[in-house]
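Quick log. Single chain, no ligands specified.
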Amino acid sequence: MKKLLLNTLLCSLLVLTGCGLPRNPVPLAKTYEAQVIGLSNVRSWEIEYSPDVGTVADDSSDCSFLALSGGGAKGAFGAGFLNGWTDSGTRPNFKIVTGISTGALISPLAFLGPDYDDELREGYTTIKTKDILNVQGLLGFGILPILMGESYASTKPLQDMISDMLTPEVFEAIAHEHEKGRRLYIGTTNLDAQRVMAWDMGAIASSGHPDALKLFKKVMLASASIPGAFPPVYFDVEVDGKKYDEMHVDGGVIVGVFGYGSALFDEPQQRGICSFYVIKNGKLDVEPQQVPRRFIKIAGRSFSTLMKAQSWSDMIRLYDRAEKDNVEFSYISIPHNYESKGNEMADPKEMKRLYDLGYEIATSNNPWQKEIPISRESGEFIWTPYEGVDKEKD
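-> predicted structure:
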């Protein structure tokens, strides 16, 4: 009898999961024509986007560009680096800032500058996993949310955290900086289209649209919504006067960090950018490891290697673009000899260690790296150790 009941339950689950949840997606033939309802000029496909850098901002801004990568809780490293950069006295007032995933959560405060360093520090050194997500369960079966829904966890806590950070004052300040000629972009992945969307956040903030703040928050949430773990974010769009929805997830699904232009085949351009800085919230160097002959270990190692390869591709692409345009390229990443001690997704102690490490590097004499640590010589990959901080502080 028990076996029969179990088989019945499993069959029922298969039937239920085959149905899926209802939605109203954009017709495939119209995918590239969809526009946000009431706000048609606030986004573009990443491969096509070209930041408005030709305009000259006021004297308080310079020609520097900052790109913030994904990395989850490792964003604490980037937060610490930004605050240390401020205290070093050399942090620019960036003309353009871009963010993906955790970089999208950092980017509004980084864009507004040192006046918001305290909020940035608090946001990345005091939160816990429960402040980001709620694990969903049903009748004691932890697998049910995955089989029957869109994700394993709810992002209600993350939504609340974004709302707390994006106060009306912060929103107005972003709009004000946009009007001065500075630009803030956040990337999400349109999962239907399998392409990255670059959102002009300053244009949203300064649009005057009644739903502008709501849209701004949704873009931030979407960029940080790891698929499977977090539910997708849906945007209301229209095509030919008809309303549809778009499914967006973490921008890091396709690209971990993005710059001021993607097409490497373009001719060199005078884009108004002189310095291009990348904060990589993770390790860029290879991490040799002997992999046990176990499914979970092999699968996990393969996934981390896939993400590592994406990081190399991102950085090489950005480096080549900057070199072609005669733009100074600098980046920073977590040193290869840093060892994590965290036991959960967002461990406050571990995030504080990463924050302190980023701060220490930023205030050192030579914080920036210029060459991508993976290079080809004689057809082989060469591992180039980080030469800055030799060990982390506890």
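The chain has eleven helices and 14 strands.
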